[in-house]
Structure formats: C-alpha cells, structure tokens
Amino acid sequence: MLVTGGVRSGKSRHAESLLEGQPVVTYVAPGPTVDEDPDPDWAARLAAHRLRRPPHWRTLESRDLAAALSPDGAVIVDCLGTWLTALLDRTEAWDQPSEQVRSRVTTALDVAVETLAARPGDAGPVVLVTNEVGLGVVPEHRSGRLFRDLLGEVNQRMAAASDEVHLVVAGRVLRL
Questions:
Q1: How high is the pLDDT of residue 34?
Q2: Is 80 exceeded by the pLDDT of residue 90?
Q3: Which parts of the chain are beta strand (E)?
Q4: Mind listing the GO molecular function terms for this protein (predicted)?
Q5: Among 15, 16, 56, 145, which residue carries the largest CB count within 10 Å?
Q6: pLDDT value at residue 37
Q7: Catalytic residue check, 49
Q8: pTM for the full predicted model
Q9: Which residue out of 14, 49, 141, 166 is catalytically annotated?
C-alpha cells in the first residue's frame, strides 16, 4: 500500500495506524539520521515519530530500500521522499545532468519494485509513505524541479506496484 500526501498532512500517522495489531513490524527510516543532520527541527520530528511507535516495532535506518523490504512481518517505509533525497545526496547527483541522475534513480527503483513484487503474500503487509510534491508551483531552483520530477516518477512506480493508494489531506484519507 502507498500512502501519499503533503507535509504535515497526517500521512505517517495514518500509515502507522494501518499496521496496528501486527505482531512484527519493521519501521524503515531511509532519511538522514540526527547524527548526519544536526538540525534541531529534524531531530524533533524524528523524536515525535519514535514516540508514536509501539515499543515492539523494530526500527531500521537504511537507504537500501530493496533490502529493507525483505524482512518477514509488516514493513513501513517512512518515507520515499527522504529515501530519494538520501540517494541523491549519497551519489552527489544534485548538479549532474538530469538524464544521468534519472538513470541512477531508475536503477535503484527497479530493484525496490522487483523486491516488492517478489515479496511473498504471507510475509506481511508493506506500507510505503511518500510526499506529494507536484501539486504546487514550479520550484525556482533546478534541484527542486529535479526532486519534484524524480519523486513523481518514484510515486507512480510504487503506486503501480501497490494494491492500494491512500491520499491524506488535512488528516482525512481518500482511497484512490
């Protein structure tokens, strides 16, 4: 399942609620850690997310999306936007030609989609959280346009691989 929405729309809380009652849940955090990004606002956001999780949920901080989708039990990935940012940061892709960057992202995404498709049905549900960034103005800077375009492609591919997509707006859920 893919859960999408804007910043602070309630998408993470909704995604977490979909896994209530699951005996085994792996929470995949593919974005920057507090050690990597000492921004106090980011640290506060991570802390708030941690406090909401049940104590039996296992947290996995990993940018290897395909490997993160492999464990048995339910999996929640929060979120694909931070995964994409980490991928672009790690490969220093922000200033590289768009087609070169797109190729690199597509390769990583292909592996993740294949892993998701091959996941046994009895392994547990997978909930992917992502940001909806294409509804606003065209970003002024190239990096913003690159991110918006690439995340749009990531979201389309993951939506196609998902059995259901939920759009969260102002805490309200629309099943697409």
A1: 65
A2: yes
A3: 2-5, 25-29, 58-61, 74-78, 126-131, 165-169, 172-175
A4: kinase activity; nucleotidyltransferase activity
A5: 15
A6: 66
A7: yes
A8: 0.91
A9: 49
